[in-house]
What does this fold into?
Amino acid sequence: MPTYNQGWYIAESVRSVLAQTYSDFELIVVNDASTDDTAQVLSAFFHPRMIVLTRTENGGTGLTLNTGFNAASPQSVYETWWASDNVMYPQNLAILTEYLDDHPEIDFVYGNCDIRQMDANGKEIGRKNLLAEVKTQTWDLDRFLHSYYLGICWLWRRALRERAGCWFQKTPCEDYDMTVRMAAVGGQFAHIPQTLGWFRRHNQNMSCRIRGKGIAPNYAQNLRKFQYIQEHGISAWMKETAQ
It folds into this structure.
């Protein structure tokens, strides 16, 4: 769970993870040098499955994710990341874990989520369902390269993430970038039509800022990345991107 200046929301997010019906997990919260009361809020939590790491300099979501995953137990088989302003429903991890356990041919599974719109004071002013059961949300690579539609409730095999490389420091839409790379290295995706959490939409979350600036990756960029990785390999792409 990467976080930066979200002391207003993070307690609810952390509690939702610790309240999971599935208990065989570790929660690693990485505080990216927050300047608000995030550290104070986190200091109130004492749980054997929770670790809090603090970066001394703000490095952005990509570096913060790398810090967290590098600190994960080497015995971990599945991974996910959860934004510090979103909320998991209690059976999120149980349902996603069971699916991967039962489907060894699948590397990445995603479910539905609700969206709750907040005003400037954190008050809910509207809600809707994302990836609703009435829509066809089965995995479609071409559609995915056109537009990210996987929501926020995912679980993947650690081996897939390791094949896809690390997160980049200055890449917008870190989740989109990583999942394109996961697909390019051969990851197999599947959707389950169950709602597993809710996304808090407000003016300060990253997806809203990216949408407002119009800097989300487009189809041409995603297709080039996908084809380049398939032709030259992930190491070549990582080297080119780092330049």
The first helix runs from residue 10 to 18. The two ends are 28 Å apart (CA to CA). Confidence is low (pLDDT under 50) at residues 208-213. The chain is about 35% helix and 20% strand.
